[in-house]
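Whiteboard transcription, Tuesday session. T.W. wrote the structure tokens on the left side:
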């Protein structure tokens, strides 16, 4: 066999492997992962840490379980400040995160690579600009999301809010809503939409956002956590929390907003709560 033939065979094999890795490896790996049964102890954790799981129909429970399997297999979890990440923590985080994609596409989380979990709220130094002056301030945070595929969570906040049915706060849903917002390149309160849906979203959310800010400005009781008025990205994240945690309240206060979120997430939490 000539050297030219050997080189041609090697090049062909290399190209074939490259094509497989780029276009087929992820699907093959996921299919292999889902051949394993969902661990019974994970289902026990899921029932105790993700209240909405028990309200889902069996079909959606199965989809959620599959997405959780992939999430835990593919994402790196890191405990910070001595926190130990165990299966209960992984299932709780993955379960709430995948509620946002259970009727969408798990591929929405392809760029999420790591989840850092602190035992409690944590401090960070953040830059602040006041005109031409840039300063540094110490901030206390319960979570944050990054366009680089990193999510940070304070476990105490997860337990006090996310795992309590009808709690107004859910830091896991909040931060993973930001990840969906990043899908079009920036967190601006408008996740990827197309055509008429994008137009209706913009109109509806702008009116609701302005209404919230106006209510707070005039010291009226707001229909949403005031943090949602800080900027459009936080408005979307806080709306997502309320949509899943207090759907009846959101639908009564802002039916048009509720309809937009229902169309985006392709699920109706209020209907699930009644079933």
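and on the right, the sequence the group agreed on:
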């Amino acid at each position: 066999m000539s050297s030219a033939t050997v080189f041609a065979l090697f090049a062909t094999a290399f190209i074939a492997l490259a094509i497989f890795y780029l276009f087929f490896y992820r699907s093959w790996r996921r299919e292999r992962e889902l051949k394993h049964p969902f661990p019974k102890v994970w289902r026990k954790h899921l029932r105790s840490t993700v209240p909405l799981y028990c309200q889902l129909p069996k079909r959606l429970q199965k989809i959620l379980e599959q997405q959780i399997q992939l999430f835990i297999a593919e994402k790196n979890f890191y405990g910070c400040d001595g926190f130990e990440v165990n299966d209960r923590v992984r299932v709780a985080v993955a379960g709430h995160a995948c509620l946002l994609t259970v009727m969408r596409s798990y591929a929405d989380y392809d760029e999420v690579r790591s989840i850092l979990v602190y035992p409690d709220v944590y401090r960070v130094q953040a830059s602040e600009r006041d005109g031409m002056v840039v300063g540094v301030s110490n901030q206390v945070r319960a979570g944050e999301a990054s366009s680089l595929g990193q999510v940070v969570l304070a476990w105490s906040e997860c337990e006090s809010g996310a795992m309590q049915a009808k709690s107004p706060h859910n830091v896991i849903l909040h931060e993973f809503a930001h990840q969906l917002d990043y899908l079009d390149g920036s967190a601006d309160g408008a996740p990827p939409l197309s055509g008429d849906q994008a137009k209706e979203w913009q109109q509806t959310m702008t009116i609701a956002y302005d209404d919230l800010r106006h209510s707070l400005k005039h010291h009226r009781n707001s229909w949403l956590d005031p943090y949602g008025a800080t900027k459009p990205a936080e408005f979307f994240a806080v709306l997502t929390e309320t949509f899943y945690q207090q759907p009846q309240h959101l639908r009564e206060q802002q039916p048009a907003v509720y309809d937009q979120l229902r169309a985006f997430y392709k699920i109706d939490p209020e209907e699930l709560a009644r079933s």
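Someone added at the bottom: Residues 195-217 form the longest helix (23 residues).
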